Amino acid sequence: MINPLRGMKDLMFEDSQRFVHIITTAITVAKRYGYSYIETPILEETALFRRSVGDSSDIVSKEMYQFEDKGGNDVCMRPEGTAGVVRAFVSGKLDRQPAKQKFYYYGPMFRYERPQKGRLREFHQFGCESFGEASVYEDFTIITMVGQIFKALGIGFELKINSLGCPECMPPYKQNLVSFLTDISEDLCADCNRRIETNPIRVLDCKNEQCQSLLAQSPKLIDELCEACDTDFKKLTSLLDDAGIAYEVDTNLVRGLDYYNKTAFEFVSNEIGSQSAIAGGGRYDKLVEYLDGKPTPAVGFAIGAERIMELVQMPGREREGYYMGAMVPEAVEKIIMLANRKRTSDKVTVEYSSKGFKSHMKGVDKAHARYAVLIGEDELANNTVWIKDMESKEEKTVAYTV
RNA sequence: GUGGACGUAGUUCAGCUGGUAGAGCACCUGUUUGUGGCACAGGUUGUCGCGGGUUCGAGCCCCGUCGUCCACCCCA
């Protein structure tokens, strides 16, 4: 027996229904905000992710499904969605046009990690990317949208926000941080010491308790933002306050991908194990440029479908459509013809084998059909069908017209 | 990549100190040759993850391997 690869899953029945419900709900909300669908390839040049997600991230340095294709190209399966959308934005020369663009996407992403709860090697994200809008109003709007999607899905969450600054205020802050960290490096864990070199900002969200207690004294970017970033961040918080959206400023919130600046946010749930982030996003004003486009501000987010699968409250399932069956073999083909005709407008479950009344009724329940339609001896003789509405319990026998 | 737990029927699991494999649920049939969800009765299903070893004998012990889950790392 051949099973799916490690960290990859088949989705069916209840699970696939939940999945579809998540995606369709998110699409409905995104459309209300003016987003249109974009589909980009799963396979991209490896360079795309090196330049966008960043070499220093674990995603790129050790988690990519990377290989050489038959044409000798260095390619990899996308580990996240933003890079591809931005690439498409630039490839399509949309950066040369003044129009603002808003795209939503969903689909599989691939990271070669050790699977655990809420973390698969092939997982699915729904995301949105808004291009050309520099206003912090857009940051606020996009956070609101994510909140609405979760609300529509019946999922509770906490919102964490932070500002990552910009090329003006981040570098000097990073210097301050590095010198602070260097002073206390002896007491920091091995990982943090490595991060001081590779990506000092990441030290901030180290989970080691000792590190965290030492970091309480660390300089906070929030206190060292340049005027523009500071104004925007204060605006964002006041907008959230006015909208009645609860949030927590988490100065240690650092997005794992290199391309973020200014607003960073994360939606977390405490109901799903240690992988608590259910959505994440923020502003990435420099990424279009990094990928050879004209400077274009942008904001976006992604929701992890698998992370919220168990949290979603599914709408109650109501009886729907018809179940059709025959109780004498000669009536089977009549049933099939009837069903084909009815299927032009309704959901129909057909039982091909002739069987007893009782087992048909069980079939009706199993199919969760609203109406039972049966042909037995009498009906066959009279060219009629017997119909029962399973909810109202009403029954009738009606003429079957050819 | 590191650490821990676990792989027995479709599923959830039981199986004592090694002695020829069991329960609930599900499924099928019947009670009821035309009124479903309930009840009752009966029935089907296993290379006990895979490979090797110890033993007269292994689901149980040992080694390896694959897989699952959880945690770390990282992230949605």
What does this structure look like?
This protein is α+β, with helices and mostly antiparallel strands and 402 residues long. The protein folds into 2 domains: 240 residues, Bira Bifunctional Protein, Domain 2 (BirA Bifunctional Protein, domain 2), CATH 3.30.930; 78 residues, Rossmann fold (3-Layer(aba) Sandwich), CATH 3.40.50. It contains 14 helices and 16 strands. The strands form 3 sheets. Strands 1-5-6-11-10-9-7-8 form an 8-stranded mixed sheet, sandwiched between helices. Strands 13-12-14-15-16 form a 5-stranded mixed sheet, sandwiched between helices. The longest helix is centred in the N-terminal third of the chain and has 19 residues. It is elongated. It starts with 13 loop residues before the first helix and ends with a strand. The protein binds one RNA strand of 76 nucleotides through α3, β6, β10, β11 and α11.
The fraction of residues in strands falls at 15-25%
Number of E-state strands: 16
- The CATH class of the largest domain: Alpha Beta
Rg result: 28 Å
**Strand order, sheet with most strands:** 1-5-6-11-10-9-7-8
Report on the biggest sheet. Answer: 8 strands, mixed
Topology as a string of helices (H) and strands (E): HEEHHEEHEEHEHHHHEEEHEHEHEHEHEE
Question: What is the 3D form?
Answer: elongated
Distance between the termini: 47 Å
CATH topology of the largest domain: BirA Bifunctional Protein, domain 2
Corresponding CATH architecture of the largest domain: 2-Layer Sandwich
